[in-house]
Amino acid sequence: MTSDAALSSEAVALADRIGELVARMRSAEAELGAVLVEIEQRGVMELFGYRSAARLMEHLADEPKPAAERLIKRARLLNPGRNLDGSPIPALAPATGAAARAGRLSNPMIDVITSVLAQVPPEHCASAETNLVAFAEEAGHKQVAALGARILAHLVPDGQEPDDTEPVVPTRELFLRRKRTGIWELSGRFDDETGTRAHALLDALAERRTGDDCPDFRTTPQRYGDAFSDAVDLALNSPELPMQAGERAHVMVAVSLNDLKSGLGKATLGDTGTMTAAEARVHACDAMIIPAVLGDKSEPLNLGRLRRLISAGLRRALFLRDRGCAFPGCHRPPRHCQGHHIRHWADGGPTDLTNLVLMCAHHHRLLHRSGWEVRIAPDGLPEFLPPVFIDRRRKPRRNNLHEPLPFAA
Ligand SMILES: [Zn+2]
Ligand SMILES: [Zn+2]
To answer: What is the pTM of this model?
Structure first.
């Protein structure tokens, strides 16, 4: 019996220790949330130069951004806010916040309480919170959720009163995050209308390819992945996209001039990513991304930005001449296309009609990576020379799919 008693007192001591540590973790997390909310109110950008408190946490604490976002979202409900003029906004759940800072509430418990309070009419909020927090001390979060449902059923019998002055805000959430491997993951939830539109857009872009001299072997997810990439390009090409620093391109890539010319080496993409210099060369071809071209000592070189940007007028002329992707057999229309510099601007190629060809993103990449070559024929139209492994004589080929029909003229 003695050993049993000893064992159980050891177990009690261990359980107490766990309880103590968990309370300290919860209390520290609640305080951390309060600090992040304060940083948000004082201006993350002004204080740290970061776009959001979640991004700051990502770098300061190696906390994945979605986890940091959840923490901050929770903290905003527990801590007082501030209007733009500096006047305070009371917290939605101040008593829950106090219990959280004392280390007494788990995160699921906090989430249950705040989700109930968000639906309770303001005049009943304080008493509902008192009840919920008191019950939380002795019950699990599922039981507290059940109490919350009872409170709501009593106070808001038909669910929240419909507000007929404001249209219902559709549910839209999107998570896009980069993993350490450099692979990005995308997930989200959308209202029916947005989902249907997105489906229609991707469906149209994910059609099987024709005209590559070989069947399209891509799986359905691969075709939709390519379609998503095309949709991003389309949106980036849109004249309605907000300008950034006067350019329509949006992602910075830092690459040395030598690497950009040779296509060998690595380039830095955005804040954290990397891409091969060959990839940077394709993207820089039509300034889909802004290359910060660096010299030998990493000093930025000014390469005559205007020289390499395809102006709206020039793009229209290119649309009229090529009428779509110029690659033999491709049916993609002009709005899906980019301007390829036949001689890359980094190698001194001019940005004019004699050095540009309209190409869809897929064929543009193919052209940069494979043995295909393009040139402007004496009649002023582009023609493509296949790689030797396709045609030993390299007889030039053209795309005649965009020609107007004889009877449509
Ligand atoms: Zn190109
Ligand atoms: Zn094409």
So the answer is: 0.46
